[in-house]
Write a structure and sequence with these properties.
343 residues; nine-stranded antiparallel sheet; three-stranded antiparallel sheet
Length: 343
């Protein structure tokens, strides 16, 4: 039996009180049973499917497409990204695909110029101090020219750097994949999601039916659109619902398609944040100290927070989506529901 405990309900109620204009969807799959629940400020309400921005969970989908190309020997983990991007043939070393996919390539920042960084801080100051909207804007637009410029100006050594999570690493990886396919990344990814994964509600873009507006501190911030020519699409801009995310998690549990199993190979990074020690897969974080051990990925855009996790040994998967931005309790809620149903 799938359950939402009293503790989990209290966490959900706390969020809803802080963000009374938002909704929260919880999807759980366990031993062939599926449960979908929807909450608002009044508590649990009759279920209705909604579309959410899933932000960095996009990376798990990009890694899945990458795994397909690895499985088909179209790419190799130890290849340099320069092998697939002709503009990067100007020097001996550029990061390997493995290092890009595991955030150990040495990129510690996004591809932003000093002027763009200054503009972001000015916008942050304006929103925080004058409009009294306390959030940091996300503005990492990167076109092809900037992506190549950043790769060229960053001189790196042939080594595994300390894990440093960036959208840029996946942007560069995604561009390499699109070069192999001979197609634009957005077109390539949407075809893969629909035809290979069989998911109909996971696409790029926010101009679609059923999508919620995002909120930050009860301010409606709308939706974060994918700008034309933005090369960060492989890292950030998919939208989806709980049904598709649960189906995707179940595919990973069953390793069907088979190549999804390549994403679950664990690469030690011995990273510890928020008291949690973890390693990394391709597109997934692996919590090795939490019991049960689990694969996890979260996403956060300006007005949305989401999480997806699965435990193969327990045949368990979960997706949590809310149109409340910067919800810091998403990991605690995920842990609580996991413990309620898996331990």
């Amino acid at each position: 039996m799938i359950k939402i405990s009293k503790n989990a309900n209290e966490l959900i109620q706390k969020l809803m009180k802080e963000y009374p204009n938002t909704k929260l969807t919880v999807g759980i799959y366990h031993d062939e049973n599926t449960s979908l629940k929807l909450f608002d400020v009044s508590g649990e309400i009759p279920y209705e499917s909604h579309i959410y921005e899933i932000a960095s969970i996009t990376k798990a989908f990009t890694a899945s497409l990458f795994a397909k190309y690895l499985h088909e020997s179209k790419m190799d983990l130890n290849d340099s990204i320069a092998k697939y991007i002709p503009e990067l043939e100007d020097r001996k070393y550029y990061p390997t695909l493995k290092r890009l996919a595991t955030h150990t390539a040495g990129y510690k920042t996004e591809a932003l110029t000093r002027v763009q960084i200054a503009k972001i801080y000015i916008k942050f100051f304006w929103n925080s101090m004058l409009k009294r909207q306390f959030y940091a804007p996300v503005d990492f637009y990167m076109d092809h020219k900037k992506m190549i410029w950043f790769a060229k100006q960053k001189k790196l050594q042939d080594k595994n750097y300390e894990y440093s999570y960036t959208n840029y690493s996946f942007a560069l990886l995604g561009h390499g994949i699109s070069q192999v396919a001979g197609k634009q990344f957005v077109e390539l990814m949407e075809k893969f999601i629909k035809q290979d994964l069989g998911l109909d509600n996971t696409i790029f873009g926010t101009n679609r039916d059923g999508i919620l507006s995002g909120y930050v501190n009860n301010v409606n911030v709308g939706n974060e659109g994918l700008g034309k020519g933005d090369c960060t699409a492989p890292a950030h801009f998919l939208t989806s619902n709980a049904e598709d995310l649960l189906a995707f998690a179940r595919m990973n549990i069953e390793e069907n398609p088979q190549y999804l199993g390549l994403c679950h190979n664990i690469y030690p990074i011995n990273k510890k944040e928020f008291g949690i020690e973890y390693d990394i897969g391709l597109g997934w974080v692996y919590f090795k100290e939490k019991k049960p051990c689990r694969f996890f990925m979260s996403g956060g855009s300006e007005g949305f927070t989401s999480a997806i996790s699965f435990v193969k040994e327990k045949n368990f998967a979960m997706a949590i989506l809310t149109n409340a931005g910067s919800y810091k309790g998403i990991l605690e809620l995920s842990d609580t529901i996991m413990n309620d149903n898996c331990i």
